[in-house]
Amino acid sequence: MSIGVIAGTGGSATGTETAPETTKNPINVKYSALICETLLKFRSDSSIAGFRFNHLQSQFQMARRSLRVGNHLAQHLHG
Questions:
Q1: 48 in any annotated domain
Q2: Would you say residue 15 lies in a domain?
Q3: Rounded (10°) CA dihedral 69, 71, 77, 79
Q4: What is the Cβ-side half-sphere exposure of residue 18, based on CA atoms within 13 angstroms?
Q5: Which end of the chain is more exposed for a tag (fewer CB within 10 A), N or C?
């Protein structure tokens, strides 16, 4: 199996022909693990950010509803 960074070339980004098997090359194993770890962290961070955004969005919607109810009551009390 060759590791190709650029799709379809079968080579790496540095211009070497083909990389050896990932399991036989400790540098490839190290970088593969680092890439996986980075991707998982990014996925985790983005889902936390998504959760926070949804939470803020629902807080904003509740505040808008409260404001509408408050305005409605104020109109009836002063009307």
A1: yes
A2: no
A3: -130
A4: 9
A5: C
Flag whether 69 is in a domain: yes
Per the domain annotation, does 16 fall within a domain?
no
How do residues 2-55 score in pLDDT, each as one tens digit? 444 444 444 445 444 455 555 566 777 788 888 888 888 888 888 888 888 889
For residue 46, how many C-alpha atoms fall within 13 Å in the half-sphere facing its CB? 6
Residues 1 and 21: beta-carbon distance below 8 Å: yes
Query: Is residue 56's pLDDT more than 80?
Result: yes
Range of the domain at 45: 22-78
Q: How far is residue 57's CA from residue 49's CA, in Å, rounded to a whole number?
A: 12
Show the tokens assigned to 73: 């009551």
Q: What's the number of domains the chain is made of?
A: 1
**Calpha distance 41→20 (Å, rounded):** 27
The per-residue pLDDT for 61 is: 92
